Amino acid sequence: MNTQRWMSKQFFSFYLTWGIFLPYWTGWMIHTKGITVGQASLIMSLGLAARGLSTLFAFPALSGKFSSKTLLNAAAIGTLIFIICAIPASSFTTLLAATLLLHFFYPTLMPALDTAAGVLVQSNQLKHYGKSRLWGSIGFVAGGMLLTFFTGALGDQVIVWVLGVGMAIFLGLGLMPAPEILSKKPKSPVSKEGGMLKLFRIKHFGLVLVIVILLQAAHASYYNYGYIYLQEIHAPAYLIGVIINIAVIAEIIFFSVADQKFRNFSVGSLLALAALGSTVRWVMVFAFPSVWVFCIAQTLHAFSFAMGHYAFMKYLIENIPHEQIPKAQGLYSALALSWSTAVFTIFGGFLYEIEPRYAFLGMIVCTIPSMLLALRYRSVGT
Length: 382
Known about the structure:
Shape: globular
Number of strands: 0
Oligomer: single chain
CATH class: Mainly Alpha
CATH architecture: Up-down Bundle
Order of helices and strands: HHHHHHHHHHHHHHHHH
């Protein structure tokens, strides 16, 4: 089996659906179901809280009992079920229930895939993480572009249907043969002695985790309000999907060269550059409420997200023992990609209702501290 190709297909098919869910789910609830920006903000924030519980506790615990392939397929089945449940939801309460349950299963696929990739790299079965991960970014672009075609023809109500079809495809691929190491059950239950606290005994793990938490939290306004903000500044409806995907094209370019061009960069240097790029990005969006400037700022996603994520994966592969990878991924997903984003989604929603541009400027309360901490980490060595 070509492991590099297998991992690439998994990343592509998952992020094809993520490219639909992440930018458009909030807009789908607002425009199709008729809820307010504040209600949608609350639903997504609570969903992120549920996501954090799932990835911090359920995912690491189940990783000690089931194979990676089993976990991926189970999470995909649960995701598909609750996408279907969201279709008839018509009130704030039913949308909240469907989104909470969806967040319990769906985002777990992200740390599960990165854990699988980390295990394959450590076992020398996957040569280049970046080259496989870039196919995830390509999938994200493909999902958004595909959705733009359907929404342009059929309206926003089609979003949930396209998402369901995409998840069915991911599940179908997951049922096919996988690398043998990912199909094996753990030899014995992971010891609970010390739990996740053991990770914080690894040199600089706590500091690196705080930095990436701040870096990822800074995307809260963009993920939840970027779509409606583009409408606010009168971006052509047929180009919104293209504009959103400029960020992911920049991400693709980064991942395609990262293994070669940034191999010799320290983790601290990568994190500092990511924080600088993120700060510049949100200041630009605030200072210049223009579609063209927003497009230019989108290219900085290569720094704000891709470089920060790559730096964390580089740290993980170089420093975290094989058996601790699911726990590290669980912490990263829960704290960096879920709970911190949930808090700043509420913060961003509050600012957005005062003035939309403030929601983006507000994110520098994350990026500037992350840059200072990254420079500190760089100075003490990696």
